[in-house]
Amino acid sequence: MGPIVEAVSPLLPTSGLVLEVASGGGYHSAVLADANTNLTWQPTDPDPDALGRIAKSVADAALPNLKTPLELNAETEDWSVETAAAMLCCNMIHIAPWSTAEGLFAGAGRVLSGGGVLFLYGPFKVDGQHTAPSNESFHEWLQNQDPAWGVRDAEAVDALGAKVGLGLEHTIDMPANNMLRVYRRSE
């Protein structure tokens, strides 16, 4: 988690709400909220079981800037948050259908204020090629779980951002052959 905190923290806005989409167990929001107390952190997930795990993480963290989790399905237009200064989404778009990535960016286009940033973390292909043999094996495993899943092509993801006014600002190589891709909404 340390590398994510180190990569994300300097690029965050100085104030406002950070919306985490697909928070899973709530660990990212809790650690980042502790490291960035000037921001309010809102974890979300579509899964009721995950919401319970996140609520426990929020209670255990006992941070005043970490909110109770909200239900949010990235594929729908009915998001429970209307505006955010930043968004974080870790390890989601490869374990969901492509329509979830489309929904994530459409939602970011609606929710992020001018200059707002979307952090997208996980494995990616570049120019249609896997960046490591382990990512290729992981992609094959994902496809065996569900043919709609898989490591996504970075350029296709960038195109989703461009459709809603989010341009790729940074790509940061991360441990275990992951990337942090940083998209910023035009002012």
Fill in the keyword field for this structure.
three-stranded mixed β-sheet, seven-stranded mixed β-sheet, 187 residues, alpha/beta, 10 strands, Rossmann fold
Series of H and E elements: HEHEHEEHEEEHEHEE
Proportion in β-strands: 25-35%
Going by CATH, the architecture would be 3-Layer(aba) Sandwich
Helix content: 25-40%
CATH superfamily (homologous) name: Vaccinia Virus protein VP39
Describe the protein's topology.
Layout: H1 2-8, E1 17-21, H2 27-35, E2 40-45, H3 48-61, E3 70-71, E4 84-90, H4 98-111, E5 112-122, E6 124-126, E7 129-130, H5 133-145, E8 152-153, H6 154-163, E9 166-174, E10 178-185
Parallel strand pairs: 1-2, 1-4, 2-3, 4-5, 6-8
Antiparallel strand pairs: 5-10, 6-7, 9-10
Describe this structure in words.
It is built from six helices and ten strands; from the N terminus they run αβαβαββαβββαβαββ. The chain starts with a helix and ends with a strand. Helix 2 runs parallel beside helix 3 (about 50-60) and helix 4 packs parallel to helix 6. Helix content is about 35%, strand content about 30%. It has a single domain, classed as 3-Layer(aba) Sandwich (Rossmann fold). The chain is an alpha/beta fold. The mean pLDDT is about 95. It has a seven-stranded mixed β-sheet with strand order 3-2-1-4-5-10-9, sandwiched between helices. Strands 7-6-8 form a three-stranded mixed β-sheet. It has helices at about 1-10, 25-35, 50-60, 100-110, 135-145, 155-165, and strands at about 15-20, 40-45, 70, 85-90, 110-120, 125, 130, 150-155, 165-175, 180-185.
